[in-house]
Amino acid sequence: MGATIVAIVFLSAFGGCGGPPSGRASTATPPPLEPAMVAQPGEAAVLELRGGGIPGMATAEVRAVEMSGNLEANGQVEFDDRRVATIVSRVAGRIEATRVSQWDEVRRGQPIVALYSPDFMTAEAEYLQAGDTARMSRASGVGLAAGGGGSAAEMAQSMVDAARRKLELLGMSDADIAAIRGPSPTVWMRAPISGTVLDNKAMRGSAVNPGDVLYTLGTLEQVWIVANIYETDLARIHPGQSMRAVTTAYPDQVFDGVISRISPDINADTHTLQIRCEVRNPGGRLKPQMLARVSIATDPGQALVAPVEALVFDTNAYYAYVALGNNRFSRRRVEIAGWKEQGYARIVSGLGAGERVVTTESIQMNALWHQANGESS
After folding, report:
1. Judging by beta carbons within 10 Å of its beta carbon (0-12, 13-18, 19+), is residue 137 exposed, middle or buried?
2. 0.85 cut: is pTM over it?
C-alpha cells in the first residue's frame, strides 16, 4: 500500500514537469525579421520587413500647419560695402610717416600716410615745367601772330592737363596739386571718406609697391544685416519690405530697416538663401559680425512639421522612414529647421504632407536598412 502511494506521487510529479502548466497559454517565439531591399520600377529601392513588423513600432503623420504672419530669421551684421574705401599705394616707394592707427575715426580729406617715391618728384617736375611753358606761350602770343590760330598755346595747355592727370592717377588731391611749389618726393595720402580705420597695414619705414592696400576705412552710419531664409519662405518676402532686428548685446533696442537685396542663389544643401537688409545704426551700436534676430512682417504661410523622434542622424544628414504599407518603408533624406512647438521639427524638404513616418523605432529601422544593404550601421 505504501509503495503504491509513492509510485502515484512520483508519476504525478513527473507528469507535472512534462505537461503544460495549468491555466497558462503557450508562448510562440515570433519569426525573425528579414530586412530586404525591394526594387521599385522607376524609383529608389525600398526596405521590406519580411517575417512581421517591429514590436512597438508607431508612425505619425507629417502635418501642414499655419505659420504666423511674422517671419523670423537669424542674421549677422556686416559693413555696407558701398560705405567702405581703401587707401592704395599707386607707386613704388617707402612709408615716411603715419598719422592714424586702427579703429581711429578720420575725416574725409584728412592726411593719413606720407609716401616717399621718386615718381612723385618726376611727375611734379613735369607738371611745373608744363605750367611754365603754357604761361610763356600765352605771354608771348606764339602761334597767333604767325597765323597758327593759337595751336601752340593749346598744345602747351594740353601738356599741363596731361601732367595734372598723371598726378591725379598717382593719388594726389586737387588741393595738393594746387599747393605744389617745387618737386618733392614725399606726398601725403588723404582719407577718401569719413569713417573708422578698419585695417591698418602701413608701417613707417616699410617698402610699398603699386597696388598695396595701406588702410581700409568704413562707416557704420548704415549697415547690412545678412540673414538666411528657407526656400519655402521666398514667396513671402520682396525688396523694400520693412524689417526689424534685435541683438543679444542690446536686447531692448530695435533696429529698423528694409530688405535691400535677395540672393539669386539657393544653397542646395540647406535649401536656404540670403537676404541683405539695410539697417539704420544710430550711434554705431551695431558692429560687424554681431549676431542679430531679424523679424519681417509677411502674409501667413504654411509649414510642414514632423515629430523629432522620427528623425535619424546618419553620417552627415537627417533621415526619416516613410511607411508605404505591406511592411515596406522608404528612406528619405530630409532638411529640417527649428519649430516653435516642442518635440516637432519643421521639414524643409524630403517629406510631403499626409505621409506617415516611423517614430518610436526609427533607430532600429535605420539599423535594419543598413543590414539589408550589407552595411554596418
Report:
1. buried
2. no
